[in-house]
From TrEMBL:
<dbReference type="InterPro" id="IPR008984">
    <property type="entry name" value="SMAD_FHA_dom_sf"/>
</dbReference>
<protein>
    <recommendedName>
        <fullName>FHA domain-containing protein</fullName>
    </recommendedName>
</protein>
<feature type="compositionally biased region" description="Basic and acidic residues">
    <location>
        <begin position="1"/>
        <end position="12"/>
    </location>
</feature>
<feature type="region of interest" description="Disordered">
    <location>
        <begin position="128"/>
        <end position="159"/>
    </location>
</feature>
<feature type="region of interest" description="Disordered">
    <location>
        <begin position="1"/>
        <end position="32"/>
    </location>
</feature>
């Protein structure tokens, strides 16, 4: 068995980078469809209200006035709150980060409905396992140092 540790590697002058992406990176968007209609909507605002009411960021006929809300939270995640009737491919409910029973953190491929409309969330994904190069425990070496903590996006100048 090899007892060599990552700290025992020769110093080649290379410093590992992190896998943390910039705030809002990954081109977050909704793919929207109904019958033969197809379109995309970029999630550029921190709060996107979806429904038929004037003033919503995304207005669609045949939906409740504010049928759903997508919030870009302080963890750089997009969270769906379904206010009206609809279906999702994930169970809405209490998870580790949200206590609202009608909210869920969206991941690429998550879908939901509002009236006759179907929405699919898409975001280019980046490895962020808390280890250099996006590595994982049990990877190349058994002793992998953690990368710096995830940025505090609340204080980011990018926002």
């Amino acid at each position: 068995m090899n007892d060599r540790h990552i700290d025992d590697r020769p110093d080649d002058g290379y410093t590992p980078t992190t896998t943390h992406a910039e705030w809002g990176a990954g081109n977050p968007r909704l793919r929207i469809s109904r019958d033969d209609e197809r379109t995309e909507f970029a999630l550029e605002a921190d709060v996107v209200r979806i429904g038929s009411a004037e003033g919503n960021e995304l207005r669609l006929p045949e939906t409740d006035p504010v049928h759903a809300t997508i919030t870009h939270d302080d963890r750089d995640e997009y969270v769906l709150t379904l206010n009206g009737e609809g279906e999702t491919n994930a169970s809405l409910g209490v998870d580790a980060t949200h206590t609202d029973e009608s909210s869920e953190t969206l991941r690429t491929g998550a879908h939901f409905t509002a009236g006759p409309w179907t929405f699919v969330f898409a975001r280019d994904e980046f490895a962020d396992h808390g280890r250099p190069y996006g590595g994982r425990a049990g990877g190349e070496y058994s002793d992998q140092p953690l990368q710096p903590p995830r940025p505090d996006y609340d204080e980011s100048e990018e926002r």
